[in-house]
Amino acid sequence: MFTTTSRIAVLLHGGLKGTQGKTGLALIRYRPDRIAVAIDQDAAGESFAALTGIPVEIPVVGSMSEALVYNPDWLAIGIAPSGGVLPEAWLGEVELAVTEGIAIANGLHTKMAALPQLQNLKPGQTIWDMRQEPPGLKVGTGAARSLNAKRILAVGTDMSVGKMSACLELVRSAQAQGINAHFLGTGQAGIMIAGSGVPLDAVRVDFASGAIEQIVMNAPQDADMLFVEGQGSLLHPSSTANLPLLRGSQPTHLILVHRAGQTSIRNFPHVPIPTLPDVIALYESLAYAAGAFAPAKVVGIALNTGHLSQAEADMAIAQVRSGTGLPCTDVVRYGGDLLVNALG
Asked: Residue 273: how many CB atoms within 10 A of its CB?
């Protein structure tokens, strides 16, 4: 939906200093050329790069009215409040944007296009509610196994460990090597960055694998590699995303994503994370399904070391390499060439 000339204001109230800005921060990291301004009432006037560690300098203002001076043509909802519903206090920011003729990119569960106060759109203005089940879905059939492209699925030891970032970095590295690689988004941030995809958590469970199959089958036919954004974790007690991702994409390769040093599920500390070799065996076993599907091996580990110093990160990477015998790196810190090369 965004174009190469889009000027995006990113609504991030509380997200630059809090924990709910994942969507907006990812959009800014991977589409910096399209970002006009960030809106965060708690960080107005401060350095975006210093606050986030993302090497991008964009203005940070406190309100939508202040953002208008930067001439945005899109307002992207970059925060993910609990329950996926935009707080009433911030809806006024969206109303002002609509009044000013600015398009809305919304990944929350709130269907903004249906709100009465957002109906007076100008010609060409749109509200992109991306967290909706696509029409015409069918059940999964395993058809993706017929494709020639390598299908790489990111799997994780927990939620929010960096599966989307790993895929995007690997696509970037693959393309730099002349490989025709594409990213397939399955969550709100990934869809916003890619411009298309399927919001897996908005799809009825019976059609979830079919939804993933659909975006894989509709990917460019001349692709060499398709990187499928992972969701959730087999180890997480509330996650149901992995099975439809595995069955719908019929992966040829898996990349395991893990946060260095994490030993239990972040929001459920009573649930331990097994050893990485055991996690690898679990994912490979489920992908293979005792021979019902083609085997898909974990060929490398994307280690999230964003909370560590470089020396600590290097030590953690070396330990994982030694403990698993697999290529391992932090693709955000060091780039993805090592893992792309492991894909053969």
From this structure: 19
